[in-house]
Amino acid sequence: MSYIGSKRSSSLVSFDDGTIGSGVVFPAGHIVQTITAETATEYLTTSSSTWTELTNLRLYITPTVPNSKLLIALNGVAKMGTSSGNMRMDAKVTIGGTEIERFYGLIFLNTNAIDDEAGWVHINKFYQHGQTSSFTQLQIDFHTIRGADNNAYSETAFNWDATGSNYASSYAMEIAP
Q1: Which neighbouring-strand residues pair with 88?
Q2: Residue 134 burial by CB count (10 A; 0-12/13-18/19+): exposed, middle or buried?
């Protein structure tokens, strides 16, 4: 152990403020950092042609380890209703405006009667960012859309739980390669 100014440190860690030096190599699978967002905002859509952006769940993360992966996740309640026929809610994840994954049928109805359906939704995506140096910040966005909407009678909603205590979260974890 040595002192840099008045701080105790080794070549890898400052013991006084817990910072890690640039010489640290994380073991494979180690979580390097986690970024989170939470919201009580309800997102409604009646469109099957326009994506609804879940703005309060947007994440910004700047990778710090070359070629690490990001585990990107979205959690919340999805709700929809139909009087008959087929209906589904789809979602997509974008980074910097570019779609990296689309998820079909987060929630799905196929019925011959009036029906409402709601359920807790979990979306997970691994993403290899490919940055090796001069790391740049990534903007991660989540979007939902009404899929097939034959005879839909109500809006499709993300983060709706019928009790007024809506809760949704998103996170991105950087994982060492």
Answers
A1: 108
A2: exposed
* DSSP at 27: P
> Quick one: pLDDT at residue 95?
96
Report pLDDT for 9.
44
Which of 177, 156, 30, 170 shows the shortest CA–CA distance to 94? 170
**From CA 18, how far away is CA 16, in angstroms rounded?**
6
All structural domains of the chain: 25-175 (2.60.120.1340)
pLDDT in tens, 103-115: 887 776 665 556 6
* Residues contacting residue 75 through CB under 8 Å, at least 6 positions apart: 120, 121, 122, 123, 168, 169, 170
Segment 116-129, tens digit of pLDDT: 667 788 999 999 99
Per-position b or e across 43-73, b if 16+ CB within 10 A of its CB: bebeeeeebbebeebebebebebeebbbebb
Is residue 157 over pLDDT 90? no
Q: With beta carbons less than 8 A apart as the criterion, state whether 91 and 144 touch.
A: yes
Q: How remote is the C-alpha of 50 from its chain's centroid?
A: 20
Please report, for residues 9, 73, 102, the alpha-carbon distance to residue 105 in angstroms, rounded to integers and kept in the order given.
52, 16, 10
